[in-house]
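User: I'm new to structure prediction. If I give you an amino acid sequence, what do you actually give back? Let's try with this one:
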Amino acid sequence: MDTKEETNVHSGKEITCTAAVAWGPRQPFSIQQIRVKPPKKFEVRIKILFTSICHTDLSAWQGENESQRVYPRIFGHEASGVVESVGEGVKNIHEGDQVLTIFNGECGECIYCKSKTTNLCAKFRVTHYKV
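Assistant: Good question. You get back a string of structure tokens that encode the predicted 3D arrangement of the chain. For your 131 residues, that looks like this:
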């Protein structure tokens, strides 16, 4: 995506993307076409350019914890890309922005967000063992 016009062509529409999908614990990934709906309120849709598998993904793929056994599943939540479209209410991120995704949200105000040693936000902390 070189121009903002290219990012706007799909705004508000369902798109088709290629994804590596896991259908069960320790199952090989299946490269297939998936449909992605437009972003809802306070969501963004990102064209992923680069991603990798982290330890959280690996543990979930191995099915180490029962609450992580949710399939089909697309791994690679730590990624970089370009914001393709934004949902209602999104104010600080715009179509065409280059972004990095992170597993935990950040409020920017709590003691953890202001720390230089952690990003485990007190307000938006993700506990991946909850269903």
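You can read the tokens as a compact description of the fold. Here is one thing that stands out. Residues 1-5 have pLDDT under 50 and may be disordered.
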